[in-house]
Specification:
InterPro entries: DNA_ligase_ATP-dep_C, DNA_ligase_ATP-dep_cent, LigD_ligase_dom, LigD_PE_domain, LigD_pol_dom, NA-bd_OB-fold, NHEJ_ligase_prk, NHEJ_LigD. It catalyses: ATP + (deoxyribonucleotide)n-3'-hydroxyl + 5'-phospho-(deoxyribonucleotide)m = (deoxyribonucleotide)n+m + AMP + diphosphate. The protein folds into five domains: about 190 residues, no CATH class; about 190 residues, D-amino Acid Aminotransferase, Chain A, domain 1 (2-Layer Sandwich), CATH 3.30.470.30; about 120 residues, Nucleic acid-binding proteins (OB fold (Dihydrolipoamide Acetyltransferase, E2P), Beta Barrel); about 90 residues, no CATH class; about 170 residues, DNA primase, PRIM domain (Alpha-Beta Complex), CATH 3.90.920. It contains 16 helices and 42 strands. The radius of gyration is 33 Å and the shape is flat. The longest helix has 19 residues. By secondary structure, it is of the alpha+beta class.
């Protein structure tokens, strides 16, 4: 393999930018790689003027380097900007530390990932031509990746893009964000190779099954058939087990086959109707795709509120002549580029189809994405989101124009099409439909399925009435048994009008009654795309499913519990963990930032290991926000409502007030967050000595007009006073406007005594420096001054726990900080749920490490301030 030529002065640009008398970075020299060894790669996380990632590949004695602002992603759809910068010396690969102020790149650096890489093809040609393909074998990253130059001649920066190629390691960003899941240094916490740590056959969720390079050249060339019936799915009673299933959302729309020949598209409904003229924008978008001669299979929808398909809106767009609102989601390609792909496995057909869309600009025609989760997981998520259900397809299955068990429908509620056999007039409005008489075909006759009388408004009822009157007949077409006296529902008895059985209605219902009628039906829409002759009763089958051949699974981030166990036992192998399931993950909880519920859950998952010691054995109060921080907030101290996962403490800890809640592990923490808890507050005592606090807390609350510099000064003064009283204290931001100063104490005195001591401290501060401090609460009392809240120390009073988010715009976080960084703080909400975990990844030492082992009493403080230790 040819190697790129070495520049005339290797590392000259690197050295020109640095003063090695001041920066700890290595000066280094180009070095030859040891024979037979694979070249190394490293990704350094660098918090300079802003956070970014430095991606470096060893080649020809140096580290080829790119600055990647957003870092890498396993999602091939995520194209990350990568600015090619100066080569670095090989010794830089192990560099971690702080680059001093006023030096180039001033800030903190950690080694985020490291390992070896394999070039695919000639890297010299790749660097010259601007296309570098390679495989990574790291502790976090693996699989095939690509760097592509996008800079034009004369551009100030040599800009590339970095992205993941599609292979067994590819993963949707919504399912797995490696940056958020694994933010820490691999030097401080080695993980080992991800390919060894995450055995592919051990992961529960199937991998995305698209192959890297699907060669369809082996598929036979073929003239397009004039007609092609779609493959149909079987309604299944339960999700299939086993790997090898491709899972897609069941789109609430119209099935549509599209035929593209000689650059012209025709759109054919499931019933064989040509809708090309009705869907002209969709046809035009199809003709712009590079499909060659093709048959494509998909669904047309109109997206409603929240990005969810709206069936009624689709029908309105079709009937009302608004086709520009309609989108066509394509999920299969039986024919593509003049070749018959029907015999190929579905995974290969979809991979070929995905390549077509990857090269196309956004349009009304879109690729229907699948999701790297099991059918059961996807069905649960779809039902929570109020979707119709999901479709599970065998990855190895051919395309068959028939109903098969290799495609399965999994529905959240029963819903199917029925033939409209008759109707009744609405009482008091003879030009509107009162109810529809439903039927389905079975054994050559139309069987009565019941009546539906809800689901439409007056306008729709009138439109239905006009259509039905136009096809009215004198005698019923239902099974004669069905029209005997007494067979009708009370809704229609005596006023039936019959129609030709040619119209199809889609109806949702809860179940079938023992006599074969729908229970609690709800009309959804007419289905002009379906033939009434094909309508039969759909009963969910317990389909005998044989799992498809196992496909390579995805890498997963270890759970909090797995990371905690691994940290305690470094020699123990780290196993895979199930992905975090979040209800309503896209719900915005902070309109000011757009932060969503999934951001909050991922934050709490990432800090649980640090947060749990601050929660351990303490009664906890929750601030819950069912409608986000802009809605109503409520405080919960007791288990009045069910909170799965949280422990209820024993009776009698707080007589007369009810039982208390506790969070013992990460599962309980996340369960509370799932229940829309944003803030966590704890008592100053633990359940074993509930009336004797083991800490004293001072909450520095600035009044109107108090500068941040004055608040920092107040924290130092509070610390100094406590030190003179024999109490070492620790600092954390409040997550809001203020700061918290906390002193651990031996749990010897009752809470009334501790409260008196805290009040005496604050009175002393207010008396000594009245221009800065006030001892009385209330906004009017602290204008221009700081109220050091000693009331936090009374019985049952609580303080926001370390690492808790706060239910305020921005979702600030209460962050423990070392005293020597106090003056560098910019505010009490300096870190938010979006930035706190990144800050912690650069933290080399726990600023509160000494807190847990501190042993100190209030004896000296009480004697100095005249507090009576005998008060009860």
């Amino acid at each position: 393999m040819a190697e790129p030529p070495r520049p005339a002065a290797p590392l000259a640009r690197y050295r020109q930018k640095r003063d090695f008398g001041r920066t700890p970075e290595p000066a280094g020299d180009p070095a030859a790689r040891s024979a037979g060894t694979s070249p190394s790669f490293v990704i350094q996380k660098h918090w300079a003027s802003r956070l970014h990632y430095d991606f470096r590949l060893e080649w020809d004695g140096v580290l080829l380097s790119w600055a990647v602002p957003k870092g890498p992603s396993f999602d091939p759809a995520e194209k990350r900007i990568a600015v090619h910068v100066e080569d670095h010396p090989l010794g830089y690969a192990s560099f971690e530390g702080t680059i001093p102020p006023k030096q180039y790149g001033a800030g903190r650096v950690i080694v985020w990932d490291r390992g070896t890489w394999e070039p695919v093809g000639d890297p010299a040609a790749g660097m010259r031509d601007g296309k570098l393909v390679f495989r990574l074998h790291g502790e976090k990253l693996a699989g095939l990746w690509e760097l592509v130059r996008i800079a034009k001649p004369g551009d100030r920066q040599d800009t590339w893009i970095l992205f993941k190629k599609r292979d067994a390691w590819a993963r949707a960003l919504a399912d797995y964000d490696v940056i958020a899941a694994l933010p820490d240094s691999v030097v401080a916490t080695p993980l080992g190779p991800v390919e060894a740590r995450e055995p592919r056959d051990a992961c529960a969720a199937p991998a995305r099954v698209d192959r890297i390079d699907v060669d369809v050249a082996g598929a036979p060339r073929s003239a397009l058939p004039r007609r092609l019936a779609p493959q149909l799915a079987t309604l299944a009673a339960a999700p299939p087990d086993g790997a090898g299933w491709i899972v897609e959302t069941k789109l609430d729309g119209y099935r549509l086959m599209s035929r593209v020949e000689n650059g012209r598209a025709r759109l054919i409904t499931r019933g064989g109707h040509d809708w090309t003229d009705r869907l002209a924008p969709v046809a035009a978008a199809l003709e712009a795709l590079a499909t060659g001669d093709a048959w494509l299979d998909g669904e047309i929808v109109v997206m409603g509120a929240g990005g969810v398909p709206d069936f009624n809106a689709l029908q309105s767009a079709i009937d009302g002549g608004a086709p520009d609102k309609i989108e066509y989601f394509v999920f299969d390609a039986p024919f593509l580029d003049g070749r018959d792909l029907r015999a190929l496995p579905l995974a290969e057909r979809r991979a070929a189809l995905r390549r077509v869309f990857a090269a196309a600009p956004p349009s009304a025609v879109r690729f229907s994405e699948d999701f790297p989760a099991t059918p059961a997981q996807m069905l649960e998520a779809a039902c929570r989101m109020k979707l119709e259900g999901v479709i599970a397809k065998r990855a190895d299955a051919p395309y068959v124009s028939a109903r098969t068990t290799t495609w399965l429908k999994l529905k959240c509620a029963r819903r199917q099409e029925f033939v409209i056999c008759g109707f009744t007039d609405r009482s008091g409005a003879k030009d509107e439909v009162g109810s529809l008489i439903l039927g389905y075909h079975a054994n050559g006759v139309l069987r009565y399925a019941g009546n539906v009388g809800t689901g439409w408004d007056g306008r729709t009822g009138s439109a239905l009435h006009r259509r039905l009157v136009a096809i009215e007949v004198a005698t019923p077409t239902l099974d004669p048994e069905a029209v005997k006296p007494g067979r009708w529902s009370k809704r229609s008895a005596g006023g039936e009008r019959w129609v030709e059985p040619v119209l199809v209605a889609e109806v949702a219902f809860t179940d079938w009654t023992p006599d074969g009628h729908v229970r609690h039906p709800l009309f959804k829409a007419l289905r002009d795309d379906k033939d009434a002759a094909e309508v039969t009763r759909e009963d969910a089958e317990a389909v005998p499913v044989v799992a498809a051949p196992t496909t390579p699974p995805m890498p997963k981030a270890p759970s909090v519990a797995a990371r905690t166990t691994a940290a305690a036992a470094p020699g123990r192998a780290r196993g895979p963990a199930a992905p975090l399931k979040i209800s309503n993950p896209e719900r915005v909880i902070d309109a000011s930032t757009g932060l969503k519920k999934r951001d909050l859950l991922h934050y709490y998952e990432s800090v649980a290991e640090r947060m749990l010691p601050h929660l351990a054995a303490r009664p906890v109060s929750l601030v819950r926000a069912p409608d986000g921080i802009g809605g109503e907030l409520f405080f919960q101290k007791h288990p009045e409502t069910r909170l799965p996962g949280l422990r209820v403490m024993a009776d009698g800890l707080w007589p007369g007030h009810g039982r208390l809640l506790a969070i013992d592990d990460a599962d309980a923490l996340l369960a509370a967050a799932q229940m829309n808890t944003i803030e966590f507050h704890t008592w100053n005592s633990t359940e074993t000595r509930i009336d004797k606090p083991d800490r004293v807390v001072f909450d520095l609350d600035p009044g109107e007009g108090v500068s941040w510099a004055h608040l920092q000064e107040a924290a130092l003064l509070t610390r100094t006073l406590l030190a003179e009283l024999g109490l070492e204290s620790w600092l954390k931001t409040s997550g809001g406007k203020g700061l918290h100063v906390v002193a651990p104490i031996t749990p010897r005195h009752v809470d009334a005594v501790v409260s008196d001591l805290a009040r005496a401290v604050v009175l002393h501060l207010a008396k000594t420096i009245p221009s800065r401090f006030v001892a009385k609460s209330g906004a009017a009392n602290r204008v221009g001054r700081i109220f050091v809240d000693w009331i936090r120390n009374r019985r049952a009073q609580t303080t926001a726990v370390a690492f808790s988010a706060r239910a305020r715009p921005g979702l600030g976080v209460s962050m423990p900080v070392p005293w020597d960084e106090l003056m560098a703080l910019k505010g009490g909400a300096q870190w938010t749920i979006a930035t706190a975990r990144e800050h912690l990844s650069f933290e080399r030492d726990d600023p509160w490490a000494g807190y847990w082992s501190a042993r100190q009493t209030l004896t000296r403080a009480m004697k100095t301030l005249g507090v009576d230790p005998a008060r009860s």
